Amino acid sequence: LCSDISPLLKDPAAFRILIDLLEGHLRASFPQIDFIAGLDSRGFLIGPPLAQRLGVGFVLIRKKGKLPGPTESVSYALEYGKAELEIQSDAVEPGQKVVIVDDLLATGGTMCAACELMKRLKAEVLECLVIIELKLLKGSEKLKSIPFYSLLQYD
């Protein structure tokens, strides 16, 4: 598997178990979640089934220029340049509790940018959740005080 979730997506039983594990973790950790927010684009694959299981809404955090209506955007550094993420300005209300999901945490730049977007909308980030963490790249250290959970870790 390493850092590719494609085999999980091809296997319906494995994907169901993945969502079961993530759902179990979130139910045990947080009595109230208002939204699951997924990062473009693989967070869109695990976020909606997880949100549906938890009976909460799903919001999109996308690359710049992909969302309609007024948006909040943040620029962040990548290993090879810069990028921008956006969320719709009315996606979450101040004080709402959000879990941000993605498939992989590498250097942590994208996840930190997503947290900044939530902060700007005055939402509370309960946790950043990923399937795979590449520990060698120390991305979770960038998240500082924000709780972080990864199902699998690789050095």
What would you note in describing this structure?
- This protein has 155 residues and is α/β, with parallel strands linked by helices.
- A hairpin with a 2-residue loop joins strand 3 and strand 4.
- Strands 3-4-2-1-5-6-7 form a seven-stranded mixed sheet, sandwiched between helices.
- The chain is globular, with a radius of gyration of 15 Å.
- Pathway: Purine metabolism; AMP biosynthesis via salvage pathway; AMP from adenine: step 1/1.
Concise account of the structure shown:
The chain has 155 residues and is α/β, with parallel strands linked by helices.
Under CATH at level 1, the class stands as: Alpha Beta
Number of helices: 5
Main sheet record: 7 strands, mixed
Give the % helix.
Answer: 25-40%
- Total DSSP E strands: 7
Structural class: alpha/beta
Topology (SSEs and partners):
Layout: H1 6-10, H2 12-29, E1 35-39, H3 43-54, E2 57-63, E3 71-78, E4 81-88, E5 97-105, H4 109-120, E6 124-134, H5 139-142, E7 148-154
Parallel strand pairs: 1-2, 1-5, 5-6, 6-7
Antiparallel strand pairs: 2-4, 3-4
Helix pairs in contact: 2-3
